[in-house]
Design a protein that fits this description.
With 402 residues, the chain is an alpha+beta fold. Helix content is 29%, strand content 24%.
Length: 402
């Protein structure tokens, strides 16, 4: 497929759900939608939703929002992002028939005899997007008022996130008593999410010619202490509202030096701290840089006054809040009971960051529930079995109508 004038075919409500889900999934998988290039897929989604005729459809940038509001009492939001990470030899996608050598051994064992979609975005998260589009077409008399949100730029920095930009510009467009973010969870509920902050820890020195190194102060050598402190950290398990979250802080990039014969006057270690939802962003930052460190997004390098990196410079690059599980909501509990009945799975903690945090900040309880395994997200052999889509669609259809 090309991205020109992509069309998502209408859903035949009399056909077997598997047929409609398979067709929608194949069509949206065939549209290239790496972050910054979501426009053609957003166009196709908008046209599809408008063609249904029973919802109000609006758009902000490349985020599409559709409401089915009829005063039914309670209001549920279902959201999924349209973008993917960059391709890695896995686009265009294709269906794999049983026995195909590209089907992972674990996938074949879990879904024997099933077709498998292989390609970029299969798991994260076009499988779930296909389910949401199918539900938008098939549910004509749901139990709750519904809002569907298909948004852009989830896979990149928070400042670009389409859901964030929608809420900043049109908070009145999004309301609800409960929200589901359809991130891949293998059709189990994952509550809340860890928060994340990213920042440079900066070692400062004095430049000099390497032939007269004693006249300088080597910043790269000083960075060894940054790495020592990171190496000494022991990952923490943190219980929050009945679920256990795993924290971690890691160096992910390092840079320094200006020439092979120059004593470097600066070395930067890029650090990512994933913190449990018992902490706010401010509390997380205090642990690594001190409560009164002046470092904020966009204001440059400031000395850490305390915490893990006391004495070094800190330059903030990104921050996103954590979200508590939200499982005390009656809607969450009823959904969890149905998921348990269908899959045997109890709710688990979401260890990565997701946009449930944005809904939590609005006072809307939210959980993660989607098709596909999060362990396959972003992999070269990203893939999902069709049975995961039918399972998710069956769970949500029953919960939203009965």
């Amino acid at each position: 497929m090309t991205n020109a004038q992509q069309i998502i075919a209408p859903v035949d409500c009399d056909a077997a759900p598997e047929e409609s889900l398979s067709r929608i999934f194949e069509q949206i998988m065939g549209v290239y939608s790496v972050s910054d290039d979501e426009g053609p897929l957003s166009d196709a989604v908008e046209r599809f939703l408008r063609s249904l005729g029973h919802m109000r459809v609006r758009r902000h940038g490349d985020t599409v929002i559709a409401d089915d509001i009829a005063g039914r009492g309670q209001h549920v939001v279902l959201a999924g992002h349209l973008d993917t990470v960059p391709v890695a030899g896995n686009f265009p996608p294709r269906w794999l028939e049983p026995g195909d050598p590209l089907i992972r051994a674990d996938m074949a064992a879990q879904h024997p005899g099933e077709r498998v979609m292989w390609g970029r975005g299969a798991t994260d998260m076009k499988a779930s997007d296909a389910v949401l589009l199918y539900l938008a077409a098939a549910l004509r008399d749901p139990k709750y008022d519904l809002t569907y949100i298909f948004y852009d730029h989830e896979e990149v920095s928070a400042e670009k996130n389409g859901l964030r930009r929608l809420l900043d510009a049109h908070r009145d467009w999004v309301d609800g008593d409960f929200a589901i973010i359809a991130e891949p969870t293998s059709c189990g509920i994952e509550g809340g999410c860890n928060g994340t902050i990213r920042f440079d820890v900066v070692a400062h020195g004095v430049a000099a010619h390497s032939a007269r190194a004693w006249l300088g102060d080597n910043a790269i050598h000083k960075a060894a202490e940054i790495l020592r402190r990171l190496q000494a950290y022991e990952p923490q398990d943190v219980p929050v509202d009945g679920l256990t979250y795993r924290e971690g802080i890691n160096a992910t990039l390092i840079s320094g030096g200006t020439g092979t014969n120059v004593i470097p006057d600066e070395c930067r270690v890029h650090v990512n701290y994933r913190f449990a939802p018992d902490k706010t962003i401010a509390q997380a930052k205090a642990l690594v840089m001190g409560e009164d460190c002046a470092a904020k997004l966009g204001n440059g390098d400031h000395e850490a006054t305390g915490g893990m990196f006391a004495g070094f410079g800190i330059e903030m690059h990104d921050e996103s809040p954590s979200a508590r599980p939200g499982m005390e909501s009656p809607l969450a509990q009823s959904l969890a009971a149905l998921v348990k009945k269908r899959t045997g799975r109890d709710p688990q903690a979401k260890l990565g960051w997701t946009d449930v945090a944005r809904f939590t900040q609005l006072g809307i309880p939210a959980v993660n529930l989607g098709a596909g395994s999060a362990l396959l997200a972003h992999k070269r052999d990203e893939q999902v079995a069709l049975g995961d889509l039918t399972l998710l669609a069956g769970i949500l259809r029953e919960w939203l109508t009965l």
